């Protein structure tokens, strides 16, 4: 979203969550900054390195420190969830570091493509 603006400090994305478990998702994702997730179509289960999983329904949101490992899954009985995510960082290369996650076929890219 908004690819014409270079060196953004906030990177918005819309992601389809299809992974059914953390094992299917793969290694937890970590990147600089903070992340706000708003559920457009749910439910979605948020897994983090330091907290118990949280299930969010459509219209609910969460804000996390994205240096903490995290993963998003579609709970049992859900084919797909859709979230609006906004990643932010004081680092000027946030967009590039997020793209590297996708270019390396990282878990977030795999979960989004399933």
Please explain how this structure is put together.
The protein is α+β, with helices and mostly antiparallel strands. The protein has one domain: Jelly Rolls. 18% of the residues lie in helices and 36% in strands. The protein is built from three helices and seven strands. The strands form two sheets. It has a four-stranded antiparallel sheet. Mean pLDDT is 83; it is low at 104-114.
Question: How much of the sequence is in beta strands?
Answer: 35-45%
Structural class: alpha+beta
- Spatial strand order of the main sheet: 1-7-2-5
Radius of gyration: 13 Å
Mean pLDDT: 83
Q: Say what the CATH topology is.
A: Jelly Rolls
The total strand number stands at: 7
State the helix count.
3
Tally of discrete structural domains = 1
Helix-strand sequence = EHEEEEEEHH
Low-confidence stretches: 104-114
Q: What is the straight-line distance between the termini?
A: 20 Å
Oligomer: single chain
Q: For this structure, what is the CATH class?
A: Mainly Beta
Biggest sheet descriptor: 4 strands, antiparallel
Query: Would you identify the CATH architecture?
Result: Sandwich
CATH superfamily: Jelly Rolls
Annotation keywords:
Jelly Rolls, alpha+beta, 4-stranded antiparallel β-sheet, disordered C terminus, 3-stranded antiparallel β-sheet, single chain, 114 residues, 3 helices
């Amino acid at each position: 979203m908004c690819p014409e603006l270079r060196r953004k400090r906030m990177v918005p994305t819309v992601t389809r969550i299809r992974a059914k478990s953390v094992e299917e998702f793969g290694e937890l994702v970590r990147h600089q900054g903070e992340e706000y997730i708003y559920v457009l179509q749910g439910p979605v289960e948020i897994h983090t390195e330091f907290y118990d999983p949280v299930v969010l329904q459509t219209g609910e949101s969460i804000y996390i420190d994205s240096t903490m490992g995290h993963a998003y899954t579609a709970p049992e009985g859900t084919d797909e969830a859709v979230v609006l995510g906004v990643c932010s960082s004081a680092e000027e290369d946030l967009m590039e570091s997020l793209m590297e996650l996708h270019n390396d076929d990282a878990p977030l890219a795999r979960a989004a493509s399933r």
